[in-house]
Amino acid sequence: MTTTSAPPAEIRAPLSRERVLRAAIDLADEAGIDALSMRRLGQALGVEAMSLYNHVANKEDILNGIVDLVVSDFELPSAGADWKAALRRTAISAHDVLVRHPWAASLMLAPSRTSSARLRYMEGILGTLREGGFSAQMTHHAYHALDSHISGFTLWEVHFQMDPEEFDDLASDFMSRVQAGEYPYLLEHAGVHMEKEEQKPDDEGEFAFGLDLILDSLERIRSSS
User: Fold this and answer.
1) In which domain, by residue range, is 114 found?
2) Which residues contact 162 (CB under 8 A, 6 or more apart)?
3) How far is residue 93's CA from residue 91's CA, in Å, rounded to a whole number?
4) What are phi and psi of 161, to 5 degrees?
5) Region label for 223, one of left (φ > 0), alpha (ψ between -120 and 50) or beta (otherwise)
6) CATH no. for residue 117?
7) Is position 185 within any domain?
8) How many domains does the chain have?
9) Per residue in 107-123, pLDDT tens?
10) In a domain, 118, yes or no
11) What is the pTM of this model?
């Protein structure tokens, strides 16, 4: 008589700070940052919530940690590269990463969350501007113009994120309630939003449009100074 042994129990990867933080990011991406709790995170990892405290101090430590991991995915400017091209790649990379994690942009702005990854990102932009020929004063202004576009545009974008059908319904309702004679340009603007034309190959979208306005202006200022 032959017997078959039971299949071995699933081998679970040992708990670590990295694994806890990655699971926290997955949970925040799936259910929103407000859904992130020690209890739910423990459930996602298949452990008791108390086990998490061997790797993270508290929820605030988790928030700091996941912001640091997200920002570490930004592409930093390459040393010696053309300043304008390098900053454009970094800005687009930062925007793309933040859109993938809609909760991250607002958390990143908290003064208490100036993490090591955030400091490297800031240093990379500031250094690229200074080495690109901008004065310390102009670098100050340029940095804030770039950073506010990345953060502000992303916050606006993720706040109004909705599927196309939902957006069309909202826009149609808006247009039906607005008087054309009173707000003709607003209605025209809403109509452009609803256009179904495919994006042109050379059209990188609204974020890149605004970014290029900033970079082109900085280039003109640099050339004239």
Assistant:
1) 75-161+195-224
2) 170
3) 5
4) -70, 125
5) alpha
6) 1.10.357.10
7) no
8) 2
9) 998 887 778 999 999 99
10) yes
11) 0.84
